[in-house]
Each structure stands twice: as C-alpha cells, then as structure tokens.
C-alpha cells in the first residue's frame, strides 16, 4: 500500500482544497448550494481520489483513480473560470488558484505518465 501523504501531488491537491474553501467563504449566500458547493466537491474529489487510488492494490486501479482526480482538477479549472467571470474571485486570488490548479494538473499528469511506463 502506498502512503498518499508522501506524494507531492497529494500535498498540492490538499493545499488547493484548503484555498478553495477559503475563497468560497466569500461567495454570495445564494451560491451556497450551487457554485460554492460544486467548487468544493471538485476540489475535495482531487485529493480523495488520490487517497483512494493509493490504497488500491493494483496499478490499473491506482491509475483509474488518478485519472478521476485529473478530471476533477480540470473540472475545477472550469468552475473557477466561471467564478472569475461572475466577479466572485479577485484578480489576485484568481491567479493564485489558476497557478495552483495548473501545478496540481501537471503533477497528476506526470505521475500518471510515470506509472504507465
């Protein structure tokens, strides 16, 4: 069994989820059950799927969950773009989040590519 806590990609995903929670606390109350909830679910899904994949015994299972995590990261990227266009995220926060999502996606892609070899 792999220790997900030692993976840089998990640490990036965990940090990203914490940032998403901090940013969405400032969203309008009427977004609580829509965009706020969706952003949080996508962000948590990244780390959760890394953890679940790391707990699997076979490489194909691990890769499947890493692929799901990657999909959630890309979904989060789109949802953040919506929040930016709606004016819910400041320019500074937007740059920070976009950079964090990009780093997480690159790390996930790198791990997936390395495991497929």
Description:
The chain is mainly α and 117 residues long. It has a single domain (4-116), classed as de novo design (two linked rop proteins) (Up-down Bundle), CATH 1.20.1440. It is 78% helix and 0% strand. It contains four helices and no strands. The protein has helices at 8-24, 35-55, 59-85, 91-116. Helix 1 (8-24) runs antiparallel to helix 2 (35-55) and helix 3 packs antiparallel against helix 4. The mean pLDDT is 96.
SSE blueprint:
Blueprint: H1 8-24, H2 35-55, H3 59-85, H4 91-116
Helix pairs in contact: 1-2, 1-4, 2-3, 3-4
Anisotropy-based shape: elongated
Name the CATH superfamily assignment.
23S rRNA-intervening sequence
Helix content range of the residues, please? over 70%
In terms of DSSP E residues, the strand content is under 5%
C-alpha termini separation: 19 Å
The average pLDDT is 96
Q: Number of folding domains?
A: 1
Q: Could you say what the CATH architecture is?
A: Up-down Bundle
Number of strands: 0
- Just give the CATH class: Mainly Alpha
Low-confidence segments, ≥5 residues, pLDDT <50?
none
**Rg calculated over all Cα atoms:** 14 Å
Number of helices: 4
Q: What are the key terms here?
A:
117 residues, 4 helices, 78% helix, de novo design (two linked rop proteins), mainly alpha
């Amino acid at each position: 069994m792999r220790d997900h806590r030692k993976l840089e990609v998990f640490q990036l995903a965990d940090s990203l989820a914490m940032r998403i929670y901090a940013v969405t606390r400032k969203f309008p109350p009427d977004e609580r059950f829509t965009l706020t909830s969706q952003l949080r679910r996508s962000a948590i899904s990244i780390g959760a799927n890394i953890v679940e994949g790391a707990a699997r015994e076979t490489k194909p299972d691990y890769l499947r969950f890493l692929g799901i995590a990657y999909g959630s990261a890309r979904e989060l990227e789109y949802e953040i773009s919506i929040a930016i266009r709606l004016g819910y995220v400041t320019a500074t926060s937007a740059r920070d989040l976009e950079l964090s999502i990009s780093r997480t996606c690159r790390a996930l892609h790198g791990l997936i590519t390395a495991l497929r070899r």
